[in-house]
Amino acid sequence: MPKNPPDDSSASPSTPRVPLVDALEQSDRVSLVYGLETSRRFVREQAGIVNFDDSRPHPFSLKLIGQNPGERQEAETRGPTTADVLNNQAFRTFRTSDVREYSLFNPEARMLYPTPLTQTEALREHRETSTKDHSPQDQRVFAHYQEGLLGSKYSPVATLGRDADSMAKKENMPLPGGDPKAEGQVMFRHQTALACKFGIDFGQQYGKILFELGSKPPGDKEHFDPHRAPEKRVDDGRGSQSSGVTLRSITNVELRKAFRTDQGDDHLSFFSGGQKTQAPWDSNPNAGWSKYAWDRIDKHTVQGHLTPEQGDALKNTLETAKANGTLGRETFRSINSEINQHIPQKPTPATNSPYPLLDEAYKALKTVEGKHPLPEIHTTEERTRVAAALATQMQKHGITEIGGMVHNDKTNALVLWDSSKNSDLAKRFDLKVEDALKMPTQDSLKTLDRAPKSSSPEPHTVAIPDPQTVAIKAKL
Question: pTM of the prediction?
Answer without folding.
Answer: 0.79
